[in-house]
Amino acid sequence: MRKPMMAGNWKMNKTVVEAVGLAQAIRDSVAGVESVDRVICPAFVCLPAVQQAVQGSGVAVGAQTMHWAESGAYTGEVSAGMLQGLVEYVIIGHSERRQYFAETDETVNKKVHAALAAGLIPIVCVGESPAQNEAGETHRFVGGQVKAALAGLSGAQVQGLIIAYEPIWAIGTGRAATAQQAQEICGGTVRAAVAEAFGGAVAQATRILYGGSTNAKNIGEIMQQPDIDGALIGGASLQPDSYAAMVKTTAEVYR
Length: 255
Ligand code: 13P
Fold this sequence. Notes:
The chain is of the alpha/beta class. The chain has a single domain, classed as Aldolase class I (TIM Barrel), CATH 3.20.20.70. It has helices at 16-29, 47-54, 80-83, 95-100, 105-117, 130-134, 138-149, 155-159, 179-198, 200-205, 219-223, 240-253; strands at residues 5-9, 37-41, 59-63, 89-92, 121-126, 162-165, 207-211, 230-233. Helix 1 (16-29) packs parallel to helix 2, helix 1 (16-29) runs parallel beside helix 12 (240-253) and helix 7 (138-149) crosses helix 9 (179-198). The longest helix has 20 residues, at 179-198. The chain is globular, with a radius of gyration of 17 Å. The two termini are 12 Å apart. The model has no long low-confidence stretch (mean pLDDT 98). It binds 1,3-dihydroxyacetonephosphate. 1,3-dihydroxyacetonephosphate binds at residues 9, 94, 166, 171-172, 211-214, 232-236.
């Protein structure tokens, strides 16, 4: 049985003071819902304070990106080693990173290797553009992204990480994929690609999230899909009430 996860990607929102307030509100409102993995991913500068705020509460912290090198002349970047002890998770290859910061399948793969080597759990993002979706290229493109991101890993490494399918046309648009569409790609494309590359047992053990305009209203139906093990939540994770409602609905669905 794969444990469900509700991960909040706060993106470039909240000052340190605001982030601590949000983290405390989330900590208090989802306390004790142990059947769901609860993860919040604030900006780098907020990580130490947020980590302190949620320590011992069962709410885990993640970073939103990282660099693959151990150290060196990479102005502005943060290494996996710098994140050790601060976070358990790190989002890698979010479409906004690919779109605005020139991340590629190749750099995503390097980052996944570096994160695992440092003992961090990658949340690897894949997803097609609106044009690719309309052209019917989703299956081929997303399957390729999955295989490229995971290249060179062992099956044991793959089943310990998280994959998030986030169609770009659904991110921040209020137009979520239908639960059926999300299931079709999470199962028929993402899990199928993992099975092709690493075998069925690894694929069955790997957690796959859906992301893109999830909220307290649509999460129930999404979480009922057999191949969707959680959500990577943007906007709705910035509201403690909606995030907590999503965690609680997920706990209900998995009861
Ligand atoms: P929204 O939930 O705001 O659409 O964002 C999804 C996302 O990009 C999470 O990483």
